[in-house]
Amino acid sequence: MNQRAEHQHEEMVAYVKQYQRVIENDLRESDKNHFIKSITINYNTIKHNPMGGIDVTGYVNGDKKLVFHSGIDKYIIENKEKIETDGVGITSKLAELMGDE
Predict the structure, then answer these.
(1) CATH code: domain of residue 49
(2) Which of 8, 33, 63, 69 could cysteine-pair with 99, CB 3.0–4.6 Å?
(3) Residue 26 contacts residue 70 (beta carbons within 8 Å)
(4) What total number of domains does the chain contain?
């Protein structure tokens, strides 16, 4: 990775760390079984998506097979910044454990 790309990645990691709570809240909202105990973001997978947001991959409860994918987007609505996910994709096994089939 060149120096500029490395700097951009570091900025995205800092942004995701700042707003990780948004991803966690979105995941927990779908967790009908209260299965999720911990959420881990894989910071090496963070990248810009074509629509301008940031794509993120992670896993829950320390199990790297229970994967989720999400994105974080920033919107300006009525002069206020709003941060939200562009949806969370989860593996079928994770969906089953969360009761979100």
Answers:
(1) 3.10.450
(2) 33
(3) yes
(4) 1
